[in-house]
Amino acid sequence: MIQRTKLLGSIAATGKRSLSASSRWAEIRDIAELPHRTSPRYQDSKNGDFLTLQWPSRPQNILLTKKNKTPAITESLIEFAKHIHSEYEPINMIVEHHVAKEVHESLPFPVYTTAAPKDKSMPILHDKVDLVSTLGGDGTILHASALFATTKHVPPIISFSMGTLGFLGQWKFEEYKRAFREAYVSGAEVSHGRPALGDVAAPESAETETSDSQSWSSIRGKLMGSNHRARVLLRNRLKVGIFDANGQRLTDDAGTPSQEHGDVYAMNEVIMHRGANPHLTIIKVLINGHFLTEAVADGMIISTPTGSTAYSLSSGGSIVHPLVSSLLLTPICPRSLSFRPLVLPANAQITLRLSEMNRGKEVEVSVDGVRRNKGLGLGMEVRVSGESVRDRGGVWNGGVPSIVRGAAGSDVGGDDHWVGGLNGLLKYNYPFGEGA
Amino acid sequence: MIQRTKLLGSIAATGKRSLSASSRWAEIRDIAELPHRTSPRYQDSKNGDFLTLQWPSRPQNILLTKKNKTPAITESLIEFAKHIHSEYEPINMIVEHHVAKEVHESLPFPVYTTAAPKDKSMPILHDKVDLVSTLGGDGTILHASALFATTKHVPPIISFSMGTLGFLGQWKFEEYKRAFREAYVSGAEVSHGRPALGDVAAPESAETETSDSQSWSSIRGKLMGSNHRARVLLRNRLKVGIFDANGQRLTDDAGTPSQEHGDVYAMNEVIMHRGANPHLTIIKVLINGHFLTEAVADGMIISTPTGSTAYSLSSGGSIVHPLVSSLLLTPICPRSLSFRPLVLPANAQITLRLSEMNRGKEVEVSVDGVRRNKGLGLGMEVRVSGESVRDRGGVWNGGVPSIVRGAAGSDVGGDDHWVGGLNGLLKYNYPFGEGA
Amino acid sequence: MIQRTKLLGSIAATGKRSLSASSRWAEIRDIAELPHRTSPRYQDSKNGDFLTLQWPSRPQNILLTKKNKTPAITESLIEFAKHIHSEYEPINMIVEHHVAKEVHESLPFPVYTTAAPKDKSMPILHDKVDLVSTLGGDGTILHASALFATTKHVPPIISFSMGTLGFLGQWKFEEYKRAFREAYVSGAEVSHGRPALGDVAAPESAETETSDSQSWSSIRGKLMGSNHRARVLLRNRLKVGIFDANGQRLTDDAGTPSQEHGDVYAMNEVIMHRGANPHLTIIKVLINGHFLTEAVADGMIISTPTGSTAYSLSSGGSIVHPLVSSLLLTPICPRSLSFRPLVLPANAQITLRLSEMNRGKEVEVSVDGVRRNKGLGLGMEVRVSGESVRDRGGVWNGGVPSIVRGAAGSDVGGDDHWVGGLNGLLKYNYPFGEGA
Amino acid sequence: MIQRTKLLGSIAATGKRSLSASSRWAEIRDIAELPHRTSPRYQDSKNGDFLTLQWPSRPQNILLTKKNKTPAITESLIEFAKHIHSEYEPINMIVEHHVAKEVHESLPFPVYTTAAPKDKSMPILHDKVDLVSTLGGDGTILHASALFATTKHVPPIISFSMGTLGFLGQWKFEEYKRAFREAYVSGAEVSHGRPALGDVAAPESAETETSDSQSWSSIRGKLMGSNHRARVLLRNRLKVGIFDANGQRLTDDAGTPSQEHGDVYAMNEVIMHRGANPHLTIIKVLINGHFLTEAVADGMIISTPTGSTAYSLSSGGSIVHPLVSSLLLTPICPRSLSFRPLVLPANAQITLRLSEMNRGKEVEVSVDGVRRNKGLGLGMEVRVSGESVRDRGGVWNGGVPSIVRGAAGSDVGGDDHWVGGLNGLLKYNYPFGEGA
Ligand SMILES: NC(=O)C1=CN([C@@H]2O[C@H](COP(=O)(O)OP(=O)(O)OC[C@H]3O[C@@H](n4cnc5c(N)ncnc54)[C@H](O)[C@@H]3O)[C@@H](O)[C@H]2O)C=CC1
Ligand SMILES: NC(=O)C1=CN([C@@H]2O[C@H](COP(=O)(O)OP(=O)(O)OC[C@H]3O[C@@H](n4cnc5c(N)ncnc54)[C@H](O)[C@@H]3O)[C@@H](O)[C@H]2O)C=CC1
Ligand SMILES: NC(=O)C1=CN([C@@H]2O[C@H](COP(=O)(O)OP(=O)(O)OC[C@H]3O[C@@H](n4cnc5c(N)ncnc54)[C@H](O)[C@@H]3O)[C@@H](O)[C@H]2O)C=CC1
Ligand SMILES: NC(=O)C1=CN([C@@H]2O[C@H](COP(=O)(O)OP(=O)(O)OC[C@H]3O[C@@H](n4cnc5c(N)ncnc54)[C@H](O)[C@@H]3O)[C@@H](O)[C@H]2O)C=CC1
C-alpha cells in the first residue's frame, strides 16, 4: 500500500542467483532459513516512565537498515556488521534486499534477506527479526518502523545517527560498540554457566529451549547485570485504516488487504492533503463517531506524540512528550481563524472523511512521509485510533520499542534526551542576542 | 494565601448572633454541628473514559455556592435550596458565610455555615461536605474548587450555568430537578426496605452504620437503579508549592502553612506574570530538576488539561482533552520566535524560578485567577506537578469529581459535552461566510 | 502559462460558424470589430484613501464574466446583460468564448468574444475592454483579474457576489441596477447637450473624439453628478517572473513569452509548494538580491495585502489592509520554530530559489490559485516585486481598480466594507458564548 | 506624564550650586545658555528607501544619553565626550541632569543640562539639541526618543550598542570615531573657506548667519563630501492621546497638558493591559470612528513597524519592515480563537476604549515600556494614529531620524542591517540541527 515498502524489492526476480551461491563469503541467504524470533519483555522501571528491556534468551537475528545513496553510511554498516559478527557469534545479519546486493561482497559471512515479493516479505520479517538497528536519520527510523507497519510486535530498535541529525535517534555512531552491547545483553546474567534471567520469572514461551547458541556465556566481555538493563521508550503508534464511501476497507496497491486486519501502523502521523491540486480540501472530522468539525484546509494531520515534533510542529501543533498517551489533530493551513490543534486521548477514534463538497477532487494520503499510490475520492475516509500498548493483563505489548540513552538504574533523568533534542536540535526558545 | 478565600469571611466576629438564634426559620447554624461527610466511590464505566458515582449511603450535607452580586442567581439558589429541602429531607444545606447572611431569611429551614476564620474554615468544609452544587459560571466553579484547594478529597460537584455561560459547567439551571436527583441517588438501589449498594462490595468504612437518615427509602419517587449512575469526569489538578531562594516553603498570607503539606491544588492553572511592571520577566524553567529553558516573557502558565481552554488557550496553547493525563507549559508573550507550548506527562515536576537577572523586580503568582497577595522575589520559585488520581491500589482518589451529562449506560458518546463546548461556546473552527 | 487562461478556449477552431452567422439575435461576433477601449482616470478623494473613477467619455465595451457550472448564475448574467443593453444602448457586451456559446441564444442582441487562440486573446481583451463585471465569488474575480495578468492597465472591475460569498466582492446581485449605474456614469455631467467631464481638465488622449455613441445625454435617468463618483480601491498586484538556473526567463506553456516583458501580475499571491511530493522543500529567499533565509517547508507564499485574507491567512499571516503598500512573505508549514511572517515594502524585490539540496524534486508554482503546468527544478527561481500604482508624474496607473461601496462624497468611512468583511465573513474575533 | 521623564530630575532644587560654579573644569551649565538648535534636512536617496542627512551648518549642541547603573558605559560616555570635544571644538555637550552629576568631574570642559523641573525641561531640549547620541541598548534609544515625545522635530539620533545588544542600535561603540564623523559632517562641503551646502538650496531659515563656530573649515581631517552623506531611516511614530469618558483630554501626572496639543509620540507602541489584575480586560476597538471589535484579553498593543520586533512580536504579530507605512494592532492573550494581528494604514485613527463591562477595574497604559502613573477607568480611551512624516510640500518632517549604516551612495543594500538583525539577533528561521 505504501511506496516505501517497494524498497524491499523484487528479490524473487533478481535475487535467485545470489541466493544459490555456495560460498559463505559474500553469500546472500534466504531469511526463511533463520530460526523463529526471540521476543523480549518490557518491565516498568522504578520511576515508572521508561521500561527496561529483558531478553529471555540471546537474540540471534539482527536486522540492519540504513539510509540509501550515502556511501559513508554503507561503509559504516559494513564496519558495524563485522563488529557484531566477530563479537557476538553465532549471530545472523539480516538486511533489506537492495542492501544485500550492495554489501554482501564486502562481508566475510553470509547476510540474510527476503526472496519474496513485497507483500510476503513483511510477514517473514515480523517472524524472524529479534532486534533492529538503523544507521541514518529520522527517515531511516521511520522506514524501519514501516517494515513493521502491519504487526503489533515490533522488535526493539536501536538507532544510530549518521551525520544527518535526527530527533528520534539516540546514539551517535561512534558509540556503537557500547550501545549495541547494552541493547544486546540487556537483562542477561551469567550464573552456573547457564543463562540467568534476572528478575524475570520465566521466558515468554515455555517451548523456548535454551540451546547453546542462545547461551549468554559465549559472549566475550562482561555482561552488564540485571541492574543495567537497556532503557526503552515505547513509542505509541496510530492504527490507520482506509475505507470507501460504502464502508468497505480499501486494500493496498496490490489489491490484497495488507494484513489480517488490514490496518497499518504509523509512528509519526497520517495526513490527508490537497497534494498538487491548488484548491482547498474539505474534510469532515468525527471523534468517536460524532461530528467534530469540517476542515476547509490544505489538509489534516493526525499525529502521535512522537510525530508532534515533525509535520504537526510545522503546522503549529504543540510539542507533546512521547510519554503523554494521546493523539494530535492538527490542521494544515486551515481557512479559518479559529482552528486550533487538539490533543485527544489515545483511545479516541478519529475519522477524516472527504466531504461530498470536494466535487471530483482527490486528496493524497501519506503515512510517515510515504504517499499512498492512489488518492482518496469523495466519501472515502481514513479511520485512526491510538495503539494501546498494554494488554488487559498489564503486559507491555505494541508500540515501537526504542532503546534510549541512560541505564535504567541511573539517576539521570528520563527526559534528558528529549529535552536535549528540543534545545540542541529544534532550537527551542533559542535566546535572542548575538551569541550563536 | 489566596484572596478569594477571604470570601469565607470573618464569621467569628459577626456571626455569633445569628448562630445563637433559636428559631428554625431563618436560622444560621454552625457547620460543626453536622455529621461527618460521606465519601462516594468512583468506578470505571464500560468504555473506560468516564467514572460512575456510587454513594455508600445517602449524602446529607450539601454545599451550595453561587456567583456574587447577581440577584437573579440568589433567587435561583433559594428556589433550589427549597426544592432540595422538600424532596430530600432529612438534608443539611451549607452555604458560605456571606451567602448565609444574604439568604437565611428567605429559607424556612436553617442553613449551616462556618464560624471560624478563613484558615480554619477550609478544613471543616473538607470534613463535612458530601456534595457541592454551584450556580454561576466558570468562575463560580473555580471558586468552589478553591474551597477544597488544600485537600485531596474534593466532594463531587454538580454545576449549573446561570446566564453567564461557561465551559466547565454542564447543566442548565432549568434542568436542576432531574440533574440533582441523578447526582443524589447515583448508585442507590432500594431492596427489602434497606439501601442496596449496587455492585459495590461494601461501604468505604466498616464503621458506617446505616441510620434512618441515611436510608434511600425515604426519598420520594423512583430511584434510578445501578445502571443509571451519574457520570463523573475526574478533572486532574495541579499541586503547587512556593519556595524561597533557600528552598524554604513560603506560607500563606496569615503566616502559617496553609495545610499539612503546604501545597495548594489548582484546577485551571498557576501563572507567574510581570503584573503591573511594564518590563519583561526572566523565568528559569526546570523539568524533573533539569534545566529546560529560560523564559524571557510576560510570564509562564502551567495548566491542567481543564485549564487548556482558559488562559493557556489565549496564550496560544493547544486544546487538550481533560482525559489526557498531562500538564501544559505555555509561555505568555515570550520574547522569542521559537518558544512553543509543551504538553508534558502529568507526573513531571516543573519548577519556575525567578532568575537572578530580574534585578529587584517582583512577579505576581496567580492560581485559578486569584492572585497571591505577595509577589515573588529573586530566586523564589513555584514547584508544580500533576495530582495523581489513582492510588496504588487502583482506587480513584483526588481530582475534582465533576458530574457530567449522559448516563453511564447510555451509548451517547462521552465527548459530547466537550465537543459541544468547543463548537457552541468557543466557536471552534467557526465557518467563514455570512451565516451566523 | 497558466491553466486558467485555457478557458479562453480555442475559438479559432470551433467558433467560426457562429461568428459568421448573420442574425443579430443570438449572434456571436468577433471582439476585433469593437472600437478601442476608453480608459478612465483615477483621482484622489478628499480623505485620500480611496480614488474616484472618472470616465473621459462613455464606456462602451463591457466584459461580463461569471462562475462556471452554476445555472443560476448563468441566468443572472442573462438578466444583467439584457438590463444593460436596454438601459445603456449603444453598448457592446463581451463574454468569454465558452460563455458566448452558453448564452448567445438567450440574448436578443449580439455578444462579442475572442476568435484567437489563448496567447492572442489576452492582448485583444486588453485593447477592447472598458469595464469588467463579475458574477460569482472571489474565484471569479481572480479569474477576471487573470485575464489581465499581462497588462498594467486593468479596466475597472465591478463584482457581484452570487450565493458563494466572497471577501473581495462588494455588491450583492440584487443591487445590480444601482451599482452598475454608479460605475457607468461615474464622473459624467450633462451640460449643454454635450458631455461634461466634471473637474477633469481633458480626456486622456487628444485624439478622443466624442461621437454620438459616447455622449452621456442618451442615457435614461439622472446622471449622478461629479460629487457622486464611484469609489475605487486600487488593489496592488505582484509582478512575477520565472527564471531558470542560468537566469533565463522561462516562457509559458506555449513556449513563447507570455507578454512583452514576460512578467505576469498576481492579485492574491504566488506560491511555491511541494505539491504531491510528501517531503519538505528547501527554498532560498533573497531580498533585494541579499540572502534572507532558507526555508525548509511545504512552501512559501508571497502575497499582496489583498491576498492577506486568502492563503497567507491560512498559513498564519497577519491581515493587512489593502491600502498598506506592502508585500507579505509567509511560509507554509515551515520546519522551524522561529519562522514568522514578514511584511515588506511593496518595492522590495524578492527571489524564491529552489535550493540545490532538493535533489531532483520539483516544486509547484501557483499564481492566484492556478498552477503552472510545469513545476520548477533545481536552481530555478521566482522573482517577485510589488507593482507600483503611481507613475512618476503622480498619475494612478496599474493595480486592479475595484469599484467599492460608498460614494466618495459621503462620510461613510472608507474601511466599512473591509471591516464588515472581517467581522461578517471571516468571523474576526468572534465572541465566545452561546449566541450564534 | 511618564515616569521615565522624571529622570530629568529636579535640578532646580539641587543644581544651583554647580551651575554657579565658575571653573570651566567639571562645570555644569544651564542648557538655556546654548544657542538655538540647527535642524538638518532629509533628502530622498537614489533608491528611494532611505534618506540622506544634510546639515545647513555645523551642529553644535550634542545630547549624550546612556544606560543607567552601568559603570562601563559611563566610562565610555566620558571617553566619547572627550573625543568629540577635542575633535570638533567649538561644540557643546548636553547630558541629562543625573548624568551631569555623575560625569562632570571627569570632564575637562563644562557640560550643559536642564535646571528646570520635568515639564519645562522637555521643551528646552527640543529647542537646543542638534544631534543625539545614545550609549546602551534599545531601552536607551527608547528613552532618548521619549525625551522628544512631545515634539514633531526629533533631532537625528546616532546609537551605539554597548554590550547589551539591541535591535534598534546600528553601531558598535568601537567604531564611534568614524560613525560620529559621518553623522556630524554629513552633507558638508568646504569651498572658498565658507560652508557649502551641497545640493541643498538654502539653510532652513534665512536668519541663520554662518558665524565662525558654524564653519566646517575648522574641523580637522577630511570632510566626506556630498556623496557620502549619512543615511537616515525615518522611523514613524504613533501619536497618542488619552481621554476621559466625556472626551476630555487627560493631562499628565503634573496636571498640566504635556504639550500644546497634548499628544505624546511613541516609537515602539502604546499598550493597554490588565496589569496586576488577574482578570480579563474588555476593550472596544474603533477604526476611524467605526466599531471594529471588542477585545476580551490581557490587553491590546498598537505598534509602529519599529515596534513590530518588540512586544507585538512576543504577542504573535508579524514582523513589519520599518519602511512600510503602517500601524499594527496586536492583541495580548485574547480570549478568542479568531483574533489575528492586523496591519493598518499609518493614517488610520484607532481608539481603544475601556468597555463599561469592566466594572471598576482599571487598566494600565504604557508607552514604549513606561507605564502611565494612573491607570484608566471605565469609558476612558486611548486615541492613536500614525505620525505623518512628510508635509504637504513633500518635505520630510517628523519621525525619529535614525542614522543607519551604509553610506547613501554605496550599493550596499538598504535592508542589510534590518535583515542582519533578524538573522543575527532575533534568530529568525534559525535552522534545526546540531550546529549552533
Ligand atoms: N489552504 C488555503 O487556505 C488555500 C488557499 N488557496 C487560495 O485560494 C485562492 C484561489 O481561490 P479559488 O480559485 O476560489 O480557490 P478555492 O476553491 O480553493 O477557494 C479559495 C477560498 O478563498 C477565498 N478567497 C480567495 N481570495 C481571497 C481573498 N483575497 N480574501 C479572502 N478570501 C479569498 C475564496 O472565497 C474561497 O473561499 C488562491 O489565490 C489562494 O489564496 C488556495 C489553496 C489552499
Ligand atoms: N512580553 C514582552 O515582549 C514585553 C515587551 N516589552 C517591550 O519592551 C519595550 C521597552 O524596552 P525596555 O525598557 O528595554 O524593556 P525591557 O527591559 O522589558 O526589554 C525589552 C526588550 O525588548 C528589546 N526591544 C525594545 N524595543 C525593540 C524593538 N523595537 N525591536 C526589537 N527589540 C526591541 C530590548 O532590546 C529588550 O531586549 C517596550 O516598548 C515593549 O515593546 C515590554 C513588556 C513585555
Ligand atoms: N512541512 C513539513 O514539516 C513536512 C514534514 N514532513 C515530515 O517528514 C516525515 C518523513 O520524514 P522523511 O522521510 O525524512 O522526510 P523529509 O526528507 O521531508 O524530512 C523530514 C524532516 O523531519 C524530521 N523528522 C521526521 N520525523 C521526526 C520526528 N518525529 N520528530 C522530529 N523530527 C522528525 C527529519 O529528521 C527530517 O529533517 C513525515 O512523517 C512528516 O512528519 C513531511 C512533509 C512536510
Ligand atoms: N488573557 C486571558 O485569557 C486570561 C484568562 N484568565 C483565566 O481566568 C480564569 C479565572 O476565571 P474568572 O475568575 O472567571 O476570571 P475572568 O473574569 O477573567 O474570566 C475568565 C473567563 O475564562 C472562562 N474560563 C475559566 N476557566 C475556564 C476553562 N477551564 N475553560 C474554558 N473557559 C474558562 C470563564 O468562563 C471566563 O469567561 C483563570 O483561571 C484564567 O484561566 C485570567 C486572566 C487573563
Largest sheet of chain A: 11 strands, antiparallel
The assigned CATH architecture of the largest domain in chain A is 3-Layer(aba) Sandwich
Molecules bound to protein: 1,4-dihydronicotinamide adenine dinucleotide
Work out the largest interface and the residue count of each chain.
A-B, 53 and 53 residues
Multimeric state: homotetramer
**CATH fold title of the largest domain in chain A:** Rossmann fold
Percent of residues in β-strands of chain A: 25-35%
Round the Cα radius of gyration of chain A to an integer and report it. 22 Å
Q: What is the class of the largest domain in chain A in the CATH system?
A: Alpha Beta
General description of the model:
The structure is a homotetramer of 436-residue chains. Chain A has 436 residues and is of the alpha+beta class. The first copy, chain A, has two domains: 3-235, Rossmann fold; 238-386, Tumour Suppressor Smad4 (Sandwich), CATH 2.60.200.30. The first copy, chain A, contains nine helices and 25 strands. The first copy, chain A, has helices at 11-14, 16-20, 71-88, 97-103, 118-128, 138-146, 176-184, 311-314, 416-424; strands spanning 28-30, 41-44, 51-54, 61-66, 92-95, 111-113, 131-136, 157-161, 171-172, 189-191, 194-196, 231-235, 238-243, 264-266, 269-273, 281-287, 290-303, 319-320, 326-334, 342-345, 349-354, 364-367, 370-371, 381-386, 400-404. In chain A, the strands form five sheets. In chain A, strands 13, 14, 15, 16, 17, 19, 20, 21, 22, 23 and 24 form an eleven-stranded antiparallel beta sheet that branches. In chain A, a hairpin with a 2-residue loop joins strand 10 and strand 11. Chain A starts with 10 loop residues before the first helix and ends in a 12-residue tail after the last helix. The model of chain A is unreliable at 1-23, 192-209, 254-260 and 408-414 (pLDDT under 50).
